[in-house]
């Protein structure tokens, strides 16, 4: 979550933009046709006219519109995904501009919510698609409402807590999702096709999302093209990571991040999404793929078979969806929020080394105090944290995720 803006929202700095009325510039009213916009993508045999129509009918939800989410949203919007739902609890700040491609300096000065800022930018380069910005923290209470309309869920979050929640929901609803992560020079992605997953089969295109039939007629493809077929389920996130990481968890605020790693993760995630949305799941990668751009180290872990003993996809125990795995949060006195994380011991010395570049740190055997004005985080050995300087639970959760890790 961003720091409080120094600029009053009532006095936003003007954006540098040339405003020309339609009367002065008749070309402003001209619609860019799908033939012009997507011509090079349609020429690619893996998409073609049929694939482009399928993309125009698709609905993708992106959870997190920071670095990876912004890049993925931009790529999908330019590819012609008919509907995007963008979910994020955070605001744009100056440190985002190095890697978060949908934001500019004016967004940072005004501390615009990331979902709304992304919506505005996308509308400038593709006004033909529907974008639904949701300024929200994804939690068990709202996950069904926010994600139910989507054909596919893309993870662009910064914490395992939300990823386990996504995994529970996707497995329960038999809905595909794609994990993505980046930190430092490292990028990783993984496709999750739950048990019971059925290939996406869209109805006939609506008037809103229909691409010009003379150009993109389904009859131009052979009858066998893009035919839905049975696809075996993959391992879910809990099959590969039965428990979240323990101890200090690096975040981009403590370990740094390269924009190239972000764009690698987003490009792979988006390409896998295009395969799925054009009904070609047989082309999906069935591994957890990771690559370090700095060291050139790469690895792949086989995810082609679910673990029959997995608590989530095997035994169908959805503890995170029930809220059991979520840290309890309370307002604690005046201008403070308390996050209860009793299951993760904290190494104060290691945490001090991580946090010192970002503010003043003091600790003893009982607690660690991290001052980053206007907020102070007091961390206890069991992971419990008191965040002073706000009563905004969403902001408190964001600060905890950024600096403590979750």
Compute the gyration radius: what is it?
A: 22 Å
Beta-strand fraction estimate = 15-25%
Q: What is the straight-line distance between the termini?
A: 14 Å
Uncertain spans, ≥5 residues at pLDDT below 50?
1-23, 203-225
This entry's quaternary arrangement is: single chain
Q: Count the strands?
A: 14
Tally of helical segments = 13
Largest sheet: 8 strands, mixed
Along the chain, the helix and strand elements come as HHHEHEHHEHEHEEHHHEEEEHEEEEH
Would you tell me the structural class of the helices and strands? alpha/beta
User: Share of helix among residues?
Assistant: 25-40%
- Name the average pLDDT: 83
Molecular structure report:
This protein has about 400 residues and is of the alpha/beta class. The protein has 13 helices and 14 strands. It is globular and about 65 Å long. The two termini are about 15 Å apart. The relative contact order is 0.13. The model is unreliable at about 1-25 and about 205-225 (pLDDT under 50).
Short characterization:
This protein is an alpha/beta fold.
List the helices and strands and how they pair.
Blueprint (H helix, E strand, L loop, with lengths): L33 H4 L1 H5 L4 H10 L1 E5 L3 H13 L3 E6 L16 H6 L3 H12 L4 E6 L7 H5 L4 E4 L4 H14 L3 E7 L2 E7 L44 H4 L11 H4 L3 H19 L9 E6 L4 E6 L25 E4 L4 E5 L7 H8 L4 E4 L4 E5 L2 E5 L5 E4 L4 H11 L3
Parallel strand pairs: 1-2, 1-4, 2-3, 4-5
Antiparallel strand pairs: 5-6, 6-7, 7-8, 9-10, 10-14, 11-12, 12-13, 13-14
């Amino acid at each position: 979550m961003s720091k409080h803006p120094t600029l009053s929202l009532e006095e936003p700095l003007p954006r540098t933009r040339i405003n020309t009325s339609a009367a002065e510039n008749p070309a402003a009213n001209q619609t860019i046709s799908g033939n012009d916009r997507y011509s090079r993508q349609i020429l690619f045999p893996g998409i073609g006219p049929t694939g482009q129509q399928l993309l125009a009918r698709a609905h993708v939800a992106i959870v997190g519109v920071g670095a990876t989410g912004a890049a993925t949203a931009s790529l999908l919007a330019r590819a012609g995904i008919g509907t995007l739902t963008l979910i994020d609890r955070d605001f744009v700040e100056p440190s985002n501009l190095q890697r978060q491609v949908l934001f500019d300096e004016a967004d940072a000065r005004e501390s615009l919510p990331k979902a709304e800022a992304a919506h505005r930018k996308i509308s400038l380069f593709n006004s033909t698609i529907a974008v639904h910005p949701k300024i929200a923290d994804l939690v068990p209470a709202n996950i069904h409402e926010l994600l139910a309309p989507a054909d596919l869920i893309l993870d662009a979050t910064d914490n395992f807590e939300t990823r386990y929640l996504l995994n529970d929901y996707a497995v329960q609803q038999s809905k595909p999702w794609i994990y993505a992560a980046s930190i430092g020079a490292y990028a990783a992605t993984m496709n999750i096709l739950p048990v019971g997953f059925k290939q996406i089969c869209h109805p006939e295109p609506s008037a809103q999302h229909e691409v010009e039939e003379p150009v993109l007629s389904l009859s131009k493809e052979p009858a066998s093209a893009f035919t839905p077929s049975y696809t075996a389920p993959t391992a879910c996130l809990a099959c590969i990571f039965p428990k979240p990481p323990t101890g200090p968890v690096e975040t981009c605020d403590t370990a740094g991040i390269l924009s190239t790693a972000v764009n690698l993760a987003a490009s792979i995630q988006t390409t896998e999404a295009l395969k799925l949305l054009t009904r070609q799941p047989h082309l999906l990668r069935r591994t957890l793929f990771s690559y370090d751009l700095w060291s050139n180290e790469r690895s792949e872990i086989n995810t082609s078979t679910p673990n029959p003993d997995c608590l989530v996809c095997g035994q169908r125990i959805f503890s995170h969806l029930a809220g059991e795995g979520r840290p309890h949060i309370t307002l604690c006195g005046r201008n403070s929020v308390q996050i209860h994380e009793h299951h993760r011991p904290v190494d104060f010395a290691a945490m001090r080394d991580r946090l010192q570049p970002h503010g003043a740190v003091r600790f003893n055997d009982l607690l660690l105090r991290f001052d980053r004005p206007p907020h102070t985080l007091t961390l206890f050995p069991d992971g419990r944290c008191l965040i002073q300087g706000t009563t905004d639970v969403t902001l408190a959760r964001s600060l905890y995720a950024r600096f403590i890790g979750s």
